[in-house]
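Field reference: sequence -> structure
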Amino acid sequence: MKNLKHTFAILVATIFVFTSCETTDDVDPPISNPFNPPTAEAYSNLKDEAKALITEFKTFNAEDGLNFISSNGVDITLPPNSLTLNGDVVSGEVELEYKEIFDRGTMLSTNKTTMGRHPNGDKSLLISGGEFYINAIQNGEQLELNADISLVIPSGLTGGGDQNMTLWDGEVDENDNLTWEEEEQDPAGRGGVFLEGDGANGNYYAYFDSFGWTNVDRFYNDPRPKTMILVDVPDGFDNTNSAVYLSYDGEGNNALANLDTYDPNTELFSEHYGQIPVGLEMHIIFATEDDGQWRYAIKGVTVAENDVYSFTMSETTLGSLQQMTDAINDLP
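Structure field:
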């Protein structure tokens, strides 16, 4: 009996060891120091910090008008007595707020991408000659314009001049996504932009009569068949605490698309318009926040019809705003 019990014990131990090994092989090893996805507020604050870094303020007297040169060399002119409040011309001290964006790294960090709306409502990539935000307040009250703001924009800031550029107005939705609507130029020249000079030595001249976001743009043009793509991001992330962007290879540093649709049922990002050229070489970028820094991943792909791309946390990199911006601006 003693020998029988001993034999039974050995058999049970052997089965236990075998079963344990078999179970271990089927289970992923535990992740050390698991990453907790950020809150929507933390990610929003990170973008706000990036916006603050590119914001310039200028105080001036409304009756004198304003002319100043931005940090990148853009010439901004506001005529005398061109500001109103409730229909009355404003006098006295006024504060102007100004932002300008010329590179896709800054477009990403501020979530100010170049997505333009077609007449049918679809959106697709714009090639930018510069994005601009201009606003004026007095004693905390929003002012309006009764004359044109004019911008003189060195075309060298975006790689050279392009005669096909037009002027666009920006609208920011409830998800902080910016969409551009093309302005119609009136006979007086409002809503217009024209190029003077050649190549990097030229200037864009833009004229518009409203505050907010303005862009010098044209649609990206590619004759290849189009498709819709989907992007799967790590668990715990959605369009409130992360974003997905597209950088088209070979299009310079002045264009960036975003996937502005997120389906909570499939947990996938998409642009959902089916405007991505099949065969396009591009880089997909996943971006989020991690303890006050940027966490991002960049994946180079060649687009095939109805592709689904995935990101894992192990593919991400933690870095400062400058490191992330440099990584995006260094893409082909």
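Note: DSSP finds four helices and 27 strands in the chain.
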